[in-house]
Amino acid sequence: MKRITFAIVGLLTCMSGPLSSASATPALVIDAASGEVLYQEEATRPWYPASTTKLMTVYVALKAVRDGRMSLDTPMLVSNRAARMQPSKMGFKPGTEITLDNALKIIMVKSANDVSVTIAEGVSGSVPAFAAEMNSVARQLGMRESHFVNPNGLYNDDHYSSARDMAILGRALYRDFPNHRDLYSIGALQLGTKIMTNHNGMLGRYPGADGMKTGFVCASGFNVVASATRGGRRLIAVVMGSPNAKARTLKVMSMLDAAFMGQTNSGGNVVSLADASDPNPPNMRPEICGRNRNRGIEEDFGIPVAGDPASQNYQNDNPAAFFAADRARAMAPVTAYAAAGMDLGPRQVFQPIPIFIGRAPGWNGAVAHADNDEAVDPAADAPRGKKGRRGRAVATAPATDVETPAAQTKLGAKPTRPAARTATRGDSKPLDLSGHVQSSTDKKAVKKTDKPNSKAATAKPANAKPTTAKPTDKKAVDKKPIDKKKQQSASSRPAADKAD
Q1: Active site residues
Q2: Average pLDDT score over residue span 372-393
Q3: Which of 183, 375, 462, 490 has the fewest beta carbons under 10 Å from its own?
Q4: Has residue 316 been placed in a domain?
């Protein structure tokens, strides 16, 4: 029976598509309490972690809080470098402030690369300094195959990990910071009118799923570190290199089902797994994002079931009651999904957790978020490290990077609102972050004219319509017919790295 169950896992891998660079992609299931290995496949093979990196970002940040260097209410300042990050991102303008607590929630749900850099600079002062802390923690935890150069997981040749190391990290987060375990199971966030849904397709769909983080760049394929708890027993599963999000979720569901049912064929402890023979991570870009490659379903959210009685328990922040009320459907084995044409089924409705920008709700400082945060930013930061992996602390940042020192808070001191300060915007005008509104008398003092008063110089009424940037004017300029065939072909091709 063990062989049959894990044969299904292999079948799901084979059906998901050919991956010549790594015919057997990394997979691992461990017991979170004991570290016992329940299933493993290429678990120590180095791999690009993509946004599962953000689990280490969370660990380092929570460690800084535990050590008294800051609190969850400490404001983080968005720098120019953070604002230039590639998607997925929030699109905050330089000078925007956000508390560490809200920033951690955003990187776990939205997986925002700009906010990850904001955390790094707020905790350590710079990205290289934060990366050094990440590597120090990795060594302390026994993560032998890992080396980090950034806090978000965007591709860099010197930024790698393994399924084993990510399982060790996931286990350490639950063990060392038990009061923050809810951070990994947030289904959705709400910032103003914007709703952000978690990329983890296990949440709200798989019985007992309670974390942790997905990841994707072209070089890695689709990764996930997933956790689920049944009967008081938590398991952690890691899948790397899946060709799309749906295959990733199906595979981790199959692995967890087999492990929960006791159908395991491994043994030993996660810390004692043998090193891989090849120390170099494969680059999956040709298979995942090459020409004529269709990534398939990018996000496996499914359709929320409105009015589902079980959903109400989830909305009331009671996941245990949610799964208890949905026990019949929850206990259906994943093999049923495969028999039904690999259909994941719908996700439950999430009650978004409200977050805010600034030091408190209603903050009047600089606030902005991109409406189209999946657009490719040609000026985004995408550093590439030098060849060679072992023995280097951090990669050298590109010469175009301009780092803005993060706001520093005294140890143990309660953050106080600073005096007015300015941040440079794209139009080179100073941006007042103090919340002060310039009065009409101030404006007159700043700008005077020697011209006599005339009708042309008089102020326009308050309700006058602006004469610039009309929506209709933009559409009328250089509008070319759309080639539907080219548009359809482009939509089927993979987008740029997003580190989801």
Answers
A1: 51, 54, 111
A2: 40
A3: 462
A4: yes
